[in-house]
Specification:
homodimer; BirA Bifunctional Protein, domain 2; 8-stranded mixed beta sheet; 11 helices
Amino acid sequence: MSESPLPPLAEHLTARSTAAAMRVQQEALQAARDHLRSLGFQELLPPLIGPVTDPGGRGAKALDVDFYGHRYKMMTSAILYKQASLRGFPKLFYIAPNVRVEPAETAGTGRHLVEFHQIDVEVAGATRAGAMGVAESLLTHVVDHVWRAVPETLTELGRDRESFAELLAGPFDQVTHHDAVAGLRSVGHDQNPDGEIDWAGEELLSHKAERPFFITGYPKGSRGFYDREDPDNPGQLRNFDLIAHGGFGELVSGSEREADYATIVTRMRESGENPAKYAWYLRAAREGIPGSAGFGMGVERLTRFLTGLDALWQVSAYPKLPGVATP
Amino acid sequence: MSESPLPPLAEHLTARSTAAAMRVQQEALQAARDHLRSLGFQELLPPLIGPVTDPGGRGAKALDVDFYGHRYKMMTSAILYKQASLRGFPKLFYIAPNVRVEPAETAGTGRHLVEFHQIDVEVAGATRAGAMGVAESLLTHVVDHVWRAVPETLTELGRDRESFAELLAGPFDQVTHHDAVAGLRSVGHDQNPDGEIDWAGEELLSHKAERPFFITGYPKGSRGFYDREDPDNPGQLRNFDLIAHGGFGELVSGSEREADYATIVTRMRESGENPAKYAWYLRAAREGIPGSAGFGMGVERLTRFLTGLDALWQVSAYPKLPGVATP
């Protein structure tokens, strides 16, 4: 077990900043629901466990459970279920609870929680640009709403409305992964051109920006098999992250999705996944999953960005840190 | 594995009745949130796993997970966390996902899902009557709202507004567990006077009623250690169920809670629970958990009642039946 920065739960739950963060989070989720419903989205309650979950691309593991003698996993994300639901619900979202077992040494980063939530959005027939548009309008609407609903809470937390002015003025900038890497390397940051933007690099970019911005086209190895490869740029994905300004880093990850059965199987094999594990999902893909694009916006990351609090555990009512045994 | 009444997931998700049920559920949850927030409640996102969970009183089991070498459980309900949060959040609610491993032979009842959700409400300083008042106003508000928001969906499902007229006229009737048992026995139903009202008995009472009604004062052995024993009627709990009319059965279970440290330990021992397992909760109780009352309203049971559909799996997007291996 690691050294924990967490206070005891009773102390955390009675802290003034926790009450403030929960007020902001409640308003943010209401605004998100209102906005997505106004765009014609249907909210569903996502599954918690299943025979497979998102294998992801960043090394976090899923928790196993014994479902009547079958080894099931708690959802690290419900992406596969989003895709499989599009025929019945072409514009859908979840407020999805997820569990990811991160390495214990990440407990002190302030950026890792084992339990967290995502506003998980998917749109049948949409392109990457369409999903980016929804993410941008969603963030803008949420920021606008919380400043109308609980301005005194944000001010008490030390937030300044001015630091959101550029965000509200929009539109958000876009940079390709290729150009972001080149920019980082030009200022002496040794960013790997074939991988995720590392945290130091992301923080650098995030601090330099005046408003959130998109990074597009991450390399294939860095993300899950469901992110669609760009037919015009093999090796690049038609995906995106949305990075907050002010040093708060990634708020959203999204992509166009791969919907072609044979390509999904190939991508699974390339990323080291055994297609046999994904029987129900591949059956659905063979019967026809619509092409789509979508994203997940981290609820705790969003709340941290809105409140300006330092660590993700400060904006979770029941925080669980990697490797730290707490309630 | 049992015989499953479930269609394949792709078929379920494209069924007309599933789309209708999800529309109704979305409106019901919006109405619940609006109503509870108008009463001054704060919504929190509940924990999914922890060192202990609600041991319940009905034989369903929790799923174990390995949390960095510690044996944690998925929440069967987050009741203990609700209580522990009251000092910071005196009126709080969750829309809580829960997992209960029910016996495989319950797969065909139409009343059991392994994954389900509760509108989980708790009020510091409230009495049983106070919690019953919140449950009654919540159900009334939800019914009123869905009939305003999606009347054509309810009508298409075969629901008749007239069958909710008595509910909307209120107030709900109340009967003690003692009198409910006596009534059932007088019509020849062999109800055990010292236990839960069994399903056949509950169904009988539910069919006879014209509007939802409360049953109060269940015997001590039938519920968890956190339901407060009635000081005026030892052996009886200061708890309640809210039973829907029309054969839909229980929608809500609630109670005044035990807040006295020594009494909690005694009640744990009486119900066969090892107090050592509940270290963090007992520490919180020793430091002072406020007296409270609250309840859980089953989201899928509520949606079934609103839509009139037969089985709980029809009103869950991703149904999991006891003993049935499905996505």
